[in-house]
């Protein structure tokens, strides 16, 4: 359990999946307020209601994080509502798999926009205030997909980019008591892996020592650690979360 008493967090892509798992963990660990940012407002509102039936600590905000004007508006709204932002978890992400020669440039552009450029937009909106308040925690959800799986040139480029971006933020902002770390899961039990054909998923799972994907709450524990003061000297890291799958 971490201690988020008095802290204010923003989680993107938090209507479901990993982002929603992080929101639940923040609420369980005493966060003051958390913003559930997602392009699907209906789902974000349902998640806020489910995780915080009191309606006083979790709030839904509609935003397409790949659109800078929308991010600008949304984060200004959150700042006006919360007064400050201590923690930013960038979890919004998509896949559009195709071999490079068959990949429409639109799919390349979209995945880079949602999975990489949006993180720059969101960080740019919170960092000036984090510097001013001399405190901040940034957690960027990358992926073991950075390694370059078949059919994922757009995803691999974006997720490798997330690792580099995170390291630069860590270096530039450490002196302001801001940490930035990325998390690299290989498979987490969310809707995203349900897009993988069952026969391919079975082979993928067999590579994991316990023959299963990471549970959302298991990843939320890692996010909570990196979002809390327990990780005050952990900065610029990419945390691999694969149950030992990557050990050779
Ligand atoms: N699930 C996995 O196996 C896995 C593994 C490695 C990394 N990841 C990464 O974890 C992150 C979360 O994945 P997930 O499994 O929770 O996915 P998910 O599909 O369950 O949830 C993604 C959420 O992001 C939102 N979203 C998508 N595009 C958006 C946009 N432009 N603006 C705002 N919101 C948007 C969706 O509405 C959805 O609520 C992603 O960055 C993904 O690449 C997932």
Structure explained in plain terms:
The protein is an alpha/beta fold and 248 residues long. The chain has one domain (8-188, 215-239): NAD(P)-binding Rossmann-like Domain (Rossmann fold, 3-Layer(aba) Sandwich), CATH 3.40.50. The chain is 44% helix and 15% strand. The chain has seven helices and seven strands. It has helices at residues 17-28, 41-51, 68-82, 105-133, 153-173, 198-206, 216-227; strands at 8-12, 33-38, 58-62, 87-90, 136-141, 178-185, 238-241. A seven-stranded parallel beta sheet has the order 3-2-1-4-5-6-7, sandwiched between helices. Helix 4 links the parallel strand 4 (87-90) and strand 5. Helix 3 runs parallel beside helix 4 and helix 4 runs parallel beside helix 5 (153-173). The protein is globular and about 45 Å long. It starts with 7 loop residues before the first strand and ends in a 7-residue tail after the last strand. The mean pLDDT is 97. Nicotinamide-adenine-dinucleotide (NAD) binds at residues 12-13, 15-19, 38-40, 63-66, 91-94, 114-115, 141, 143, 185, 187-188, 190-193.
């Amino acid at each position: 359990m971490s201690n988020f008493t008095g802290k204010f967090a923003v989680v993107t892509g938090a209507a479901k999946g990993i982002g929603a798992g992080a929101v639940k963990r923040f609420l369980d660990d005493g966060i003051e307020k958390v913003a559930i940012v997602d392009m699907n407002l209906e789902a974000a509102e349902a998640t806020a209601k489910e995780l915080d039936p009191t309606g006083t600590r979790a709030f839904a905000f509609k935003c397409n994080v790949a659109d800078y004007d929308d991010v600008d508006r949304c984060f200004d709204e959150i700042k006006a509502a919360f007064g400050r932002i201590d923690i930013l978890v960038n979890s919004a992400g998509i896949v559009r798999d195709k071999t490079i020669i068959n990949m429409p440039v639109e799919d390349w552009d979209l995945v880079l926009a949602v999975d990489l450029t949006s993180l720059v937009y969101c960080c740019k909106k919170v960092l000036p205030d984090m510097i001013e308040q001399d405190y901040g925690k940034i957690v960027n959800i990358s992926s073991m997909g950075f390694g370059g799986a078949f059919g994922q040139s757009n995803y691999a480029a974006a997720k490798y980019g997330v690792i580099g971006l995170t390291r630069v933020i860590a270096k530039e902002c450490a002196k302001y008591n801001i940490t930035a770390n990325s998390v690299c899961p290989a498979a987490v039990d969310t809707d995203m892996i349900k897009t993988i054909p069952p026969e391919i998923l079975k082979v993928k799972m067999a590579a994991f020592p316990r023959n299963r994907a990471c549970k959302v709450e298991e990843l939320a524990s890692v996010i909570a650690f990196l979002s809390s003061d327990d990780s005050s000297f952990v900065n610029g890291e990419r945390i691999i979360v694969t149950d030992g799958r990557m050990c050779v």
